[in-house]
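A quick aside before the break. I want you to see a complete sequence-to-structure record at least once, exactly as it would be stored in a machine-readable document. Don't worry about memorizing anything.
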Amino acid sequence: MKFPNILLLCFIFSLHACVPASEIKNEWTAPEQKTDSTKMFQKILFVALLKDNATRKIAEDKLVAEAKGRGVASYSYLSEIDTRANESVIADKLRQDGFDGVVVMRLATIDKNATYVAGSYPNYYNSWLGYYSSAYPSFSDPAYYSSAGAYNIETNVYSLTKNKLIWTGITSAVNTTDTNKMIDNIIATIKQKMKSQGLIK
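That is the input. The structure line, written in tokens, reads:
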């Protein structure tokens, strides 16, 4: 990113605070994604399992705004779908409604002893619904989060046309006591990454 663009990005978020975007510490991209010239998403479902329902709504609304007409917030869309249904049924529903991409974000506690192996992840990462179903219990448990705790944010990007995970990344720790700063930082980071991957304009 050129220096003037960094200044422009800071200006966009200066209504809250001009702070550096969170750093992506670890990431993995599907090999074929790097050479795919037809990969831009036309309609994206955004899922932000961040801290609580209020934070989720704020984050998803901001993500939808950044997608410029190509995004839909999951808090409204998934409320009309039984996510316990067969995965293929839900996948068909999403495709019928024109979705070709899903972005799922979640807060994860920091484990200083954990190591990250690129391309190595549990089986439930293979599909967005498997990942969502695994992450949701922690999101819905108030005891999972500390009001003054630091967390990493993990983001997974799924292609519905390929039915697979195409990018996953973990950002630097953030302090969840400042909700707006946390959301703005992570959105700025993920937006730039998705643009660099050619997934959004």
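Two observations worth writing down. The longest strand covers residues 150-159. Residues 179-196 form the longest helix (18 residues). We'll return to this after the break.
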